[in-house]
Design a protein that fits this description.
Blueprint: H1 14-24, E1 28-29, H2 41-52, H3 65-79, E2 89-93, H4 94-106, E3 112-117, H5 123-129, E4 133-138, H6 148-154, E5 159-165, H7 177-187, E6 193-197, H8 217-220, E7 223-228, H9 229-232, E8 240-244, H10 247-260, H11 266-278, H12 286-301, E9 307-308, E10 316-320, H13 329-340, E11 342-343, E12 345-346, E13 359-363, H14 368-386
Parallel strand pairs: 1-11, 3-4, 3-5, 5-6, 6-7
Antiparallel strand pairs: 2-8, 7-8, 9-10, 10-13, 12-13
Helix pairs in contact: 2-11, 3-11, 4-5, 4-10, 12-14
Bound molecules: 4'-deoxy-4'-aminopyridoxal-5'-phosphate (PMP) and glutamine.
Residues 33, 94-96, 120, 165, 169, 197, 199, 228, 230, 236, 241 line the site of 4'-deoxy-4'-aminopyridoxal-5'-phosphate (PMP).
Length: 389
């Protein structure tokens, strides 16, 4: 029997590929987005405590009430909005599961979902598995802005979903208040759901403020909004995220969630709840923390030939290698691994039809020593690659 693939175009994610290559080539990995520094020891202690107390059996399907209450409190602190832990908050296995469940709940065969290019890689496969398909609208380079006329042009009766992501991975751009108003106007008279991927809600630079759909009365009513404690607590491997949606939409999301992961690791939820109740503002310094890292890395690379682009948010930094090479980004990223011993992420896998671009993505969620060492290797590579000047 020939096994028919349901996702014939999908290979292994670029993050996994580049992390594997980093190990093979013994390269410094500033590709895949994960911190290389320790989590807050008070969070680690909380985990040991709750395991010792025996909190080791199934958590409730929707998440522990303690954690959902802390999430509600956190959203109130951030956005001055109240969400009911019983009917509007669901704990998921990272943002990835929340996105998957929300997509399965929102679209079915024949439906269309609008996503913006470049797009985070998990959206399109989840839309395809639901039997729907993606219509891609480009974020306009060089600043990767939304083009709402293009969005309006892409809408039709089959459009059932729009996925937005701000701050945006991988472009490091952020949506403004007027973008949310435009989005609301686009879908006002249509039966379209929004998924807002806000995993970088606390990582905006230069005084910018995050515009959450949760604080937009019209959008809040029709959005699944997705967050990740992986980002907020520097613990990507804990795989704890959550999804906020109105009660009717939450009911549909939970129907998928209960047969997907059923429930999320109980001690992790108890530990996060305990930590947030003791330190409710633990996440408030994140923008300043990452802004300093962005400034360190961008400052070291400026003028090297691997030119940092403006970054408004996320824990990434794009660099343009156009003055060094015309090679496509997959080839160039491979060259960086072999010759500079630095692993990065090329941008083309974030596109359905990649334009010719000379950009790679670097992760700034690293110790300052790691960023300094990466910059040293990248600058000396760039100098060799450009030859005597
Ligand atoms: N969305 C975006 C934009 C991301 O960058 C990531 C991961 N970095 C995710 C979703 C997935 O988050 P998680 O690791 O919590 O599943
Ligand atoms: N979101 C992370 C990134 O953009 C990767 C997560 C993953 O490997 N699935 O780097």
């Amino acid at each position: 029997m020939r096994f028919i693939s349901k996702l014939p175009q999908v290979g292994t994610t670029i993050f996994t590929v580049m992390s594997r290559r980093a190990i093979e080539e013994n390269a410094l990995n500033i590709g895949q987005g994960f911190p290389d520094y320790a989590i807050d020891p008070r969070l680690a202690d909380a985990l040991m405590e709750v395991i010792g107390e025996g909190r080791n059996q199934y958590a409730p399907m929707e998440g522990t009430i303690e954690l959902r209450e802390q999430i509600s409190n956190k959203l109130n602190l951030s956005y001055r909005q109240r969400f009911d832990p019983h009917t509007e908050i669901t704990v998921t296995c990272g943002a990835t599961e929340a996105l998957y469940d929300a997509i399965q709940a929102a679209v079915g065969p024949g439906d269309e979902a609008i996503i913006f290019d470049p797009a985070y890689d998990s959206y399109e496969p989840a839309v395809r598995l639901a039997g729907a398909h993606c219509v891609r609208v480009a974020l306009k380079p060089p600043a990767f802005r939304f083009d709402w006329d293009e969005v309006r042009g892409a809408l039709n009766d089959r459009t059932k979903l729009i996925i937005i992501n701000s701050p945006q991975n991988p472009s490091c751009s952020v949506a403004g208040a007027s973008d949310l108003d435009e989005l609301a106007a686009c879908i006002r008279d249509r039966a379209i759901t929004v998924i807002a991927d806000e995993v970088y809600e606390h990582v905006l630079f230069d005084g910018r403020r995050h515009q959450s759909v949760l604080a937009h009365p019209e959008l809040r009513e029709r959005s699944y909004t997705v967050f990740s404690f992986g980002k907020t607590l520097h613990a990507t491997g804990w795989r704890v995220g959550y999804c906020i949606a109105p009660p009717e939409m939450t009911r549909e999301l939970r129907k998928v969630h209960q047969f997907n992961t059923f429930s999320i690791a109980s001690p992790l939820q108890h530990a996060i709840a305990r930590y947030l109740s003791a330190y409710p503002d633990a996440w408030q310094g994140l923008s300043a923390f990452f802004e300093a890292k962005r400034d360190l890395l961008a400052g070291l690379l400026k003028g090297s030939g691997l030119e940092p682009l403006p970054a408004a948010g996320t824990y990434f930094q794009l660099v343009d290698y156009g003055s060094i090479s015309e090679a496509d980004d997959l080839q160039f990223a491979d060259r960086l691994i072999r010759e500079a011993k630095v692993a990065t992420i090329p941008l083309s896998p974030f596109y359905a039809k990649p334009p010719h671009m000379t950009l790679v993505r670097l992760c700034i969620a690293k110790r300052d020593e790691t960023l300094r060492e990466a910059a040293l290797r990248l600058c000396s590579f760039a100098q060799r690659a450009q030859g005597p000047r």
